[in-house]
Amino acid sequence: MSADSRRSMRSMAIILIVHLAVIVLWQVLVDAFHVPTFILPSPLATLATLSSAQYAWLSNVAVTAAEILGGFALGAIVGVALAVVFTWSPLVSLILLPLFVTLNMIPKVALGPLVIVWFSYGILSNILIAFSICFFPILLTAARGLREVEPDLLDLVKSLRGSRWVLFRKIQLPGSLPYIFSGMKVGAILAVAGAIVGEFIASDRGLGYLMIQVQSSLDTPAMVMAVLLLTLLGVVLYGLVLGLERLFVVRDVRL
User: Fold this and answer.
1) pLDDT tens, position by position, 27-64
2) 3-state SS of the chain?
3) Dist. CA 147–CA 134, nearest whole Å
């Protein structure tokens, strides 16, 4: 086993131990101070909700996961594509980039009701809200990465009469991958928030919808379980992006 593999395994073990220690401490404190369940349920009480069919965990998790993944994928594709266009055409960048900056300043909670009116409520609307939140960081970091290319490399390719496509494929894209993946990691976090914003505004399915439903009855264990599942979805998406970064970017990546 290589030194890098041992170091990665050691780091993963430390991360797991820290998370398990927090869960154990949570359980001990709730039991020791007799905290009421409606204020803060213990980990065991929270896990017990998974056995109840009334929450329809699988279907609600599947809906929210589809919204998060759909919004993130759309944000990544559109963000990187527009970054390429902005890099190739400074005029288009001058016209559209300030407009995108202005649109990004709109609070997404305020934008949500309009999206619902235009597209009705459901998975599509929540995907669009998630897209609107995660798209801009990906665009900015990808555009920066595509522009920060060694001038000597650009001059070399141009002197060899390389086409714009060759320049992009051989020089710009490989050099910009660290920036693109950095933006995607931020976008993965924001996509989770965007999907939940949409479900809080108007939805009939998903973890956000479930949280609204159980809030009125002070079913705190179900609310906490929904939050934990949302966190797990975000961690899985972040881990997927990190794995792709390790695969395509030739450097030592750190969490």
Assistant:
1) 999 999 999 988 999 999 999 999 988 999 999 999 99
2) CCHHHHHHHHHHHHHHHHHHHHHHHHHHHHHHCCCCCCCCCCHHHHHHHHHCHHHCHHHHHHHHHHHHHHHHHHHHHHHHHHHHHHHHCHHHHHHHHHHHHHHHCCCHHHHHHHHHHHHCCCHHHHHHHHHHHHHHHHHHHHHHHHHCCCHHHHHHHHHCCCCHHHHHHHHHHHHHHHHHHHHHHHHHHHHHHHHHHHHHHCCCCCHHHHHHHHHCCCCHHHHHHHHHHHHHHHHHHHHHHHHHHHHHCCCCCCC
3) 21
Terminal-to-terminal C-alpha distance of the chain: 21
What tokens appear for 182 in the block?
């950095």
* Tokens (6 digits) for 45: 């009480």
Separation between Cα atoms, residue 9 and residue 1, nearest integer Å: 11
> What is the pTM for the complete model shown?
0.87
Separation of alpha carbons 200 and 129, rounded Å: 11
The span from the CA of 141 to the CA of 175, in Å, is 12
Q: Is the pLDDT of residue 108 over 90?
A: no
Q: What are phi and psi of 13, to 5 degrees?
A: -65, -40
